[in-house]
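Render this sequence as a predicted structure.
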Amino acid sequence: MGVRKKNSSETRKEANKTIAFAKLNNCPSSPRKMRLVADLVRGKDIMTAINYLKFNPKVASKDLEKLLISAINNWEQKNEGQDAYSSELFVKEVKVDGGRMLKRIQPAPQGRAHRVRKRSNHITIVVDTKK
């Protein structure tokens, strides 16, 4: 590895020490429904985000709440000895991408058939300190 690549990789590693992420693949709800919930917590501090997700009536909020708690626990493991709730953690990034799609056939009148697409999504949450 050259010196320039080594220096850039070391600076990238130093920048990634403060962040932690969690990822959920093939969550069985449509990306559009998940993005409605993800927009509520993007940029908020973790306690506010957990409260939004806990009391939101949408089903997608339960999956996002579990994923956010997982990202917080990942941050605590990365920075052992520090409490995530006392430090100023916030939701830096929430990405919701389309996942695998199950294609099914629904019978329709007069011998026709309609295609039913059961969508899923991939979610990535990144938490970071405000410093």
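Summary. The chain has a mean pLDDT of 93. DSSP finds four helices and five strands in the chain.
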